[in-house]
Structure formats: structure tokens, C-alpha cells
Design goal:
Number of strands: 17
Strand content: 15-25%
Oligomer: single chain
Helix content: 25-40%
Distance between the termini: 53 Å
Length: 564
Amino acid sequence: MPEVDPNDGPGVVSFDLTTQSWIPVLRRDGTQGELSLREVFAQAGDLRRIIGDLPTQEFALHRLLLAIAHDALDGPQDIDEWADLWAEEDCFGPIEAYLEEHRGRFDLLDGAAPFFQTPHLRTAKDEVFSLNRIVADVPNGEPFFTARMPTVERLTFAEAARWVVHAHAYDTSGIKTGVHGDARVKGGKVYPLGVGWAGNLGGVFVEGATLRETLLLNLVAADTSGVEIDAEDAPAWRRQPSGPGGAERAPSGVRDLYTWQTRRLRLHFDADGVHGVVLGYGDPLSPRNRQHREPMTAWRRSRTQEKKLKQTPVYLPREHAPERSAWRGIGALVMSEEQASLGPEPADYLRPGILEWVARLVTEGELEAGFLVRARIIGARYGTQQSVIDEVVDDHVAMAVVLLHRHDRRYAEQAVAAVGDADLAVNALGDLATNLARAAGTESDGPRSSARDLAYGLLEAPYRTWLARLAETDDPYARRGEWQQQVYAMVSELGDRLMAAAGDAAWQGRIVAVKHGTEWLNSALASKWFRAALHKGLGRPDSFDTTPDADAGPAPETTVKAPA
């Protein structure tokens, strides 16, 4: 419950985030609850994870906790300091005194410096807006499934605190009502300046068995190659409270970026809770070439931007594709910059700095090769000129940290190659579906797409299990051979099912056009091409009688080949 703060006069409500419960957690025993900032750090070893109203909220809260930990511990400065923290059960002990020191900046309702807000923020007409503007599960005009419909009338102080953190990280773009004192206001409005900082990212962090492990695994040392952290790096609460408008400046490091004030907002409340908000744009920040500052995303090289700006290289955050499961993008997580580059050319992709940091931990022996982590990916996909959130991505890949080892690349290479095996088999099945449809004289795009989706869905769980156990062997090449046999068996069975369902029209076949003339295509020939493709890509598993007919020949050049 909110407390009366005697320092601000009688009857003034206070909600101190360091002592009040507001962060939802899942304990190791399976129970859930809400904790204060002090309690989260004190009990981190007994907590499984943070949970949020949305996965994006969970990501934003993790970044807040990491900023606190980095600042309170003043580091770690190097890997030796990190190792001391990892070995010390009460490694977060100093954070309690730190939170006490900065307690005044963690009051959500403070009159002079409210947490993550701008005091006295107002529009020219003193408008107060619906809480829909900060509650992301009820975006304007496009609500998700939610019990809040049709609008958010009121929030508890705990809920409001979480959505304030989320707004700075993931608020939508679009035209916003201008606030008094913002020089960017034109005709009472500020035109689109982009989404919250984390909304630009394909968010990635590493989860351990407990929240304590998770926070430490993501606590990057200041001397880590490729991550630049200035000596004056500081979080938002160690800076002057933001005024209306925005400040053009470069980030100083992770503490700064994790708490970047992309918005200006002010909650309106009474003693029972929050009932309105004023929201405007804050500090703008281009995501271009921030790979040395922002470790919690992968990066992609943009040749379009290079041509436009006449500089090389130019990197942008690599956003998550909602339609592509995390296991299929394992290469972006485990392949190092050296492996992703071709000769002197800059790499097309850079893996997240967080994973480069964990790679250093395992390479230098601070983590055992078989130590299991989950690479968690979280992101938002925006629609209609980034004015609404269309989809939220939340996925993970469990793997042993040996896949990130900088010198022993065998495991990572076989993990990526195994996804290639799956892609090859899925493409072969898609070609089979296409050829069966062509043989029957029917439309082929739908059957092909359905077959591919079915195959990827069937292969996902076995691949995740295979990947999690890859480090149990000294011979990852042999383990990949086992995977190829498994893929062959599963996709071959799906092919049999497609053949059985193809019907008499496909069995009888028809003449189809090919590059150099025509071909009589029926289900039998389509099956032969399918088996030949599996054999060529996956070998001939000993446990199956899979030898294709010698006269099968290659698939016709008109067969549609979809990308993996």
C-alpha cells in the first residue's frame, strides 16, 4: 500500500519502489508473488525468474535490475571481479545500501523527481489522457486479448510502475500531443520520433537456473572487448530529472542505455491508484552503429544504409521475426564475428554482446563447458507506421555454453549445420507437396506452405532436445549424424502421408512444362525426387531401406524452391 511521506507535507502519497512490492516473480517452488527492489536482490537465489504482464515488460524490468546491479557494484570491471561475484552467495549485498542512498529517486509519486517521470509535465491545454497510452496490452484500436477492454480506467501503483518502465522501453511511435516546454511541438503536436529504445532491438538475454544466475550472466565486465562503457556511465536516477522535450546526446554505456529516457511522462493519481497520464517524446536515439554500446541484441549489416551514408560498415539491430522460431535462427546466437565474415569484409551479422560475454566466460574457464543456459529472445513487431504493437515475440533456446566457446567451434558448427539439415528436409517436403499438386492440376502454394509448417513444427521439439544434450558427447559430428537419421525418418514419414493423401488425380499425373520441354509428372515420380533429395542431403540412414530408384533422375527445374 502507498505510504504517507512526512517530508512532502500531510496527506501526500508515496510509493517507494525500493520497499513496496511491485515486481512479479516466480519462485523456485513454483509460487508467484510481488517483491520490492530490495527483496528481489535479497532473494534472487530463491527466485526462478521475473514475470511480467507481457514478455516485453519482463525484458524492460531485467534491464532496470541490471542497471542497478552495474551501478551499485561499480562493475564488474574485469572477469576476476565477476568470478568473485559468482562465487559469493551474497554478491548483491551492497545493493541494499545503494538503494537506500538513492531512495528518493525511486519514489513513483514524488513531487520533485518522480521515478522515470518528468515533474509537472503538462500539455498546453492541461489534458490528461487514458492509461491506454502506456498499457501495451490495450494498444489504441488494436487490443490484444485482455480483461481491460475497452479501456484502462485505473491502475494500482505497482502496475503503473511496471508500465512506466515499459513505456520508456517499448512505447509506440506516431504523432503525440505536444507538452508545454518542448521545442519540437508544431501545432500542438510532435511528429513521429520512433519507438522506445528497446523496441528497436531483437532483445536477447541469458537465463540461468535462478534469477541470481540470470543477473550475473548478463552482468558484462567493463573490459570486455566490443563493449564500450565510459567511466562516467550512469543510470537515469543519477542524472538530473528530465525536463520536457529531448536531449540529443550519445549514450555513455549500459547503465545509461538500460534506463534511456525515450519518453517524457507523468502519472496522475489519487490515494487509491493511478487514473491518467501525460505522455510525450523524450531523448531521441538512432539505433545505427550502437553495437559497441548495446549488448542485448544481435546486429545486421545494412548495405542500404552504407550506400546512403557512404560509410562502411553500418549495423542495425537484428529484429526477431515472429514467424521464425528461435531454434531456426541459432546461427545468429552462436556464430562469432570471425565465422560470420568473409575474408577482410565486415561480417553480415554480429551476435549479441551478451553472448560474446558468456563466450568469454566459458573460454576463460569461469563456466564449465556443459553449463546449461537459455538464450531468451524477446521483441515487439510494430505495425501501421510503428503506431501500434502488432506482435510480441517470446522464445528461447536451451544450450550448453560450450556452443559459445571461442576456440572450440565444433559444437556451434554442428548445431548450425543441424538446422541446415532440417531446412533441407523441409524444403524437400515442400517440393513434394508442390509436385503432387502440379501432378493433380491444383494450386500448389497452399499445400507447400502447409507441408513446410507441419515439418518445422514436428522437428522443433526433437531439435531442442538434441541441442540441449549436445555437450554430453565428445564427438558432436557423430551426434549430428544421429540427428540426420532422425530428421530423415520424421520427414520421410510426412512424405508418405502426403503421398497417401494425394488422391487418384496425382497418381494418374499429367503433362507439365519444364525448362526444356514437358514432363509426365505423377505421384510416383514426385516421390522418387523427394527420396533422392533426402538421400543427397542427409545420407542413407542404415536403419531405413531408402535407396531411390536409379531412374528417378533430378527434380524438374520448374519445381518451386522456397527459402529456408
